[in-house]
Every structure is written in structure tokens, then in C-alpha cells.
Amino acid sequence: MRILTLETTCDETAAAVVNDRLEVLSSVVASQDKLHERFGGVVPEIASRAHVERILPVIDETLKKAGLKLSQLDAIAVAVTPGLAGSLLVGLSAAKGLAVATGLPLVAIDHLQAHIYAARIAAGVDVFPCVGLIASGGHSNLYRCAGPLDFELLGATIDDAAGEAFDKVASMLGLPYPGGPAIERTAQGGNPAAYSFPRSLIHEHDRLEFSFSGLKTAVRYQLSRDSATEVNAAAAKLSPQELSDLAASFQEAVVDVLVAKSLAAVRFTGFKTLCVGGGVAANGRFRQKLTEGTDRAGVRLFLAPPALCTDNAVMGAIAVERLKAGLVSELDLDITAGVVRAARAS
Ligand code: KG4
Ligand code: ZN
């Protein structure tokens, strides 16, 4: 069984062909980072327009790399939630067009579940039941994953997502977008204990929720209590070592919270396995501290490989599970753009 998977939820136009053994036959990701860089974040209209221009060439290239024709596929899968409405609609329209033209079944993908499933793809073994963490630009969610189609939200961020905090702090520090990789690079050689930034909710073990806006404000106030221009001016005056220390101290605070809450979720569920995905999971310090924390706690850890942490279509292989369960969508399939808010775990 071979599936063409499409991903256009935010600012990457991506397609992949995967099979039911979770092997990747081809994968293409057309990043829009350069288009959004000067705005310091994703501009929805620019994103959807770029998806329109790129989706068909990306699909063509993906099929070519796999050495396959449309007629040799068995299904078309597409991420339909959550994301930017205009972006999601481009992927869904392309998928519907292909499904109508070929008569192939259409399969819906939840982008957040797919991020966590990226860890399952790399694991090569069954990982369920597990706790799932996604830490990305739009979300910081913990799930109880009883099975590959049975995700229950345990908790989420009550304000900014972890990646959003990286992006906003990077912008304050005058670093490029996306902020996560820029902060990670800048933090190298920095002292993570140079500044003591807040780790919100870290001691509230019964709350499987995140909060990163206080941390973001603490970094801002460390620089200046005045306008955004003053904040940028203060950052520009930092020595390279001070900048590095600030980036490392901020990164450490985010990482400590993500690790602590993941372990709290593992204890809460009684599960012994943790699967992690999303852009922030590409962060080397996070990977190191989570590996140490799970080793100490005797928890099996499966991290998505860095290339499958940020948005891609390979993780859409979760569609294999839906197909096997007969969960095929009709042509009236629609997008759901909104963010789902967390229920309390306790
Ligand atoms: O999963 P993703 O590609 O898109 C969403 O679904 O949001 O995540 C993008 C986010 C951005 O906020 C980016 O700054 C962050 O992931 N990110 C990182 C790293 N690489 C990407 N954050 C920290 N360290 C990284 N190395
Ligand atoms: Zn994503």
C-alpha cells in the first residue's frame, strides 16, 4: 500500500510517498522561511499564496523521486487540522482534486497527532500506549495515546507555545526567523545558569499545562522595561558572551519545563513510553536533557529525528493507521483551523 501525503498547515509545502511498512519512498519540503523572515513570523496570506504556487510542483517532484505514477498509489492523505485556514485549504483542495481524478480514497490527517507519530516512524517498533508531547510553533500539547488512533489531550499551553516563545525571544534579541535554531546556535558556549528565568508551573505536578509568556516577559525586562525599539537596542549592545548567556539561560528554562511536564504526564498516565515531536524537539539541549530525564526515570523515549521534527509530510504516514481501520473520508471533508484548548488533567 502506497500513500501520497500532503502537508500545508502552516508555511511548509510538503509531500511524501510512504508505504504501509512506514518506509519513506520520497519526501519533499518546500520551506517558506525566506518569505516570512523579514516579518519575524508567518504571514497567512503570503503562506497560502505560496502554497498555491508550489503544491503541484512539489507533488510532481515527490512522485518523480519515488519513481511512481498517480495510478500506482493506493490513497491520498492530507493534513486538515489545525493550521492556517488559507494554507489548509490549498492542501485539501489539491488532495480532493487528486482523489477525484484517480478514484483513490481520501484520508484525513491531524497535524498534531502526525508530529507525535513521527517518533513512531523512526522507532521502527510499536510505541503504544505512550504519552505524546508535541512542542512546536503553534502548540505545546501532552496526550495520552492509548493507540495510534486514540489520542486524548491531557494538557496544553495556557498562553504561548514553546516554539512561539523561541521565535519571540529571538526577535527581541535581533536573531533571524525561525527563532528556535537561531537561539540554539547563539546559546552554544553560553552559560545556562547566567540568568535565572522563571519556569512557570514546573512545581505544580498535577497541572499538565505549560505557560511560557512569563518567561518571554522576563527576558524582555532583562533587556529593557521600555518599548520594543528599546528592547532591540539593549540587545544590540550586549557582548557576544552576554547574548550567548541570555540565549542559553532562556533555552534552559524552556527545556526544563518541557522535560518536567513530560515526566509528570508519564507518571500521571502510568505509561512507560514517551513519544516526542514538533519543531522544538529538534533542539539539541532539549533532546539531551529529555534523554537524561527519561533514562533516570526508566521511561522508554522515542524522539522524532530532527528532520522529521519540523513540518514535513512523512509524518502523515499516520494515515496508514486510519486506512487500516477503514477511516476513509468523503469528498465533503473540510478543514478545522482552530486551536483546541486543553482540559485539566486533574
Ligand atoms: O513543528 P513546526 O515546524 O511547525 C509548527 O507546527 O508550528 O515548528 C516550528 C517551531 C518554530 O517556532 C521554531 O522556532 C521551532 O519550532 N524550532 C526550534 C528548533 N527548530 C525549530 N526551537 C528550538 N530549537 C530548535 N532547534
Ligand atoms: Zn507542525
Count of beta strands = 10
As a percent range, the share of helical residues equals 40-55%
Average per-residue pLDDT, rounded, comes to 95
Named CATH architecture of the largest domain: 2-Layer Sandwich
Give a quick account of the main beta sheet: strands, pairing sense, barrel closure: 5 strands, mixed
Cα radius of gyration in angstroms: 20 Å
**The CATH class of the largest domain:** Alpha Beta
Structural class: alpha/beta
Sequence of strands across the biggest β-sheet: 3-2-1-4-5
Instruction: From the 3D structure, determine the CATH topology of the largest domain.
Output: Nucleotidyltransferase, domain 5
What does it look like?
By secondary structure, the chain is an alpha/beta fold. The protein has two domains: 2-115 and 309-324, Nucleotidyltransferase, domain 5; 125-306, ATPase, nucleotide binding domain (Nucleotidyltransferase, domain 5, 2-Layer Sandwich), CATH 3.30.420.40. It has eleven helices and ten strands. It has helices at residues 33-36, 44-66, 85-102, 111-123, 162-172, 179-187, 213-223, 228-236, 240-269, 284-297, 319-324; strands spanning 2-7, 12-19, 24-31, 75-81, 106-110, 130-135, 140-147, 150-155, 273-277, 300-303. The strands form two sheets. A five-stranded mixed β-sheet has the order 3-2-1-4-5. Strands 8-7-6-9-10 form a five-stranded mixed β-sheet, with helices on both faces. Strand 9 (273-277), helix 10 and strand 10 form a beta-alpha-beta unit. Helix 5 crosses helix 6 (179-187), helix 5 runs antiparallel to helix 9 (240-269) and helix 6 (179-187) crosses helix 9 (240-269). It starts with a strand and ends in a 22-residue tail after the last helix. Bound molecules: 5'-O-[(R)-(carboxyoxy)(hydroxy)phosphoryl]adenosine and zinc ion. 5'-O-[(R)-(carboxyoxy)(hydroxy)phosphoryl]adenosine binds next to helix 5 and helix 6.
